[in-house]
Amino acid sequence: MYDSITSQLIQSTPDLPGLDRESLPDYLSKAYAEIVSSRVLLRNGEANIDDLIETVKFSLRLARTNEALVSISPNVKIKNLQALLPLQHTN
């Protein structure tokens, strides 16, 4: 799903316990597909909520870690990770 430059940027995310950075672009593509398909399945009452919750928890943990790193790092290369951060809305 990602071009080689974007895949390399995704793989440059900081180390987290249990995170396979080499497989991260594939995982994010799978997570995106799971979230999109879950929207449809939720409308029909067919979604596996537990799997979706785990995907969302992982995605938020990854986003928050990268957001913190980008916020405190003077390293310009690290600042490129900011492009990967999702927009988070609070109600």
List keywords for this structure.
single chain, 91 residues, mainly alpha, 4 helices, elongated, disordered C terminus
Q: Rough shape?
A: elongated
Number of helices: 4
Strand content: under 5%
β-strand number: 0
Question: What order do the helices and strands follow?
Answer: HHHH
pLDDT averaged residue by residue: 76
Distance between the termini: 31 Å
Instruction: Return the structural class.
Output: mainly alpha
Radius of gyration: 14 Å
Q: Largest sheet, described in full?
A: none
Low-confidence stretches: 87-91
Helix content: 55-70%
Give me the secondary-structure topology:
Blueprint: H1 4-11, H2 24-43, H3 49-72, H4 76-79
Helix pairs in contact: 2-3
